[in-house]
């Protein structure tokens, strides 16, 4: 789900659906990839908690229909 080289955090729609957390569809954006493809985001998950072993952090996660990862 996370890409260390990304400037935004992106999650596929199917993963978001499995999490069952709310999606804010009033915060939409379009992502342009390095190969100039453009993908519209479905919305953002606000303050999604992640714990990488050093304590929880909250991140804003953009949800996309499908991704090449």
Main beta sheet strand tally, sense and closure: 4 strands, mixed
Helix/strand order, N-terminal first: EHEEE
Indicate the overall shape.
Answer: globular
N/C terminus separation: 8 Å
Percent range of helical residues: 10-25%
Q: Figure out the total of helices.
A: 1
Structural class: mainly beta
Average pLDDT rating: 86
* Unreliable sequence segments: none
Strand order of the largest sheet: 1-4-3-2
What would you say this structure looks like, in words?
The chain has one helix at 13-19, and strands at residues 9-12, 30-32, 38-51, 56-64. By secondary structure, the protein is mainly β. It is globular. The mean pLDDT is 86.
Summarize the structure.
With 69 residues, the chain is mainly beta. It has one helix at 13-19, and strands spanning 9-12, 30-32, 38-51, 56-64.
Topology:
Elements: E1 9-12, H1 13-19, E2 30-32, E3 38-51, E4 56-64
Parallel strand pairs: 1-4
Antiparallel strand pairs: 2-3, 3-4
Name the features:
4 strands, 10% helix, four-stranded mixed beta sheet, mainly beta, 69 residues
